[in-house]
Amino acid sequence: MRNPLQEQLLKAGLAKKSQATQAVREQNKQRQAKHPQAPSAEQAEAERARAEKVERDRALEAQRKAQARAHELRAQIQQIVEQGKVKRKGEIAYRFDDGEAIRTVYVDTALRAQLASGALAIVRHGEDYELVPRAVAEKVRERDAAMVVLDHGASKAAPAEPLSEDDAYYAQFQVPDDLVW
Question: Which residues lie within the region annotated Disordered (predicted)?
């Protein structure tokens, strides 16, 4: 099992038989050793493509879960508002701002007083607005705070900028929320 070069070296007397046997043993050990082979370019490319696909699939799955969660929250809000809405009646226009637009709902004096005191809140319900009790408004706020349009009972954050001298003077005079001009 020796190669021709080893045979020639033995015949010429340049190597001993024990040296040749030792070299054969070392070669066999190297062949049978469990050294990790360096991955070929094709294997590296396949591994990179697989890792990219796994990452892409993970991102798509996270996006699907987020969309499903948002859909579930919208359905919960719709159900909560449907079950807790207060029947509107009356001819008094109650105006409130929704973003940059001023909206109007028609209520009677009792509902207007409850809105002003904070016992009722106004929430967005599809393209319309509904009056709901504070407890219902809190449930809606837990799921999506943007759906609660008007809630006088919610604690307001302190103004970010300090009051000017004139504003500080006029702050002592309270204007009622239900003031009708």
Answer: 12-67
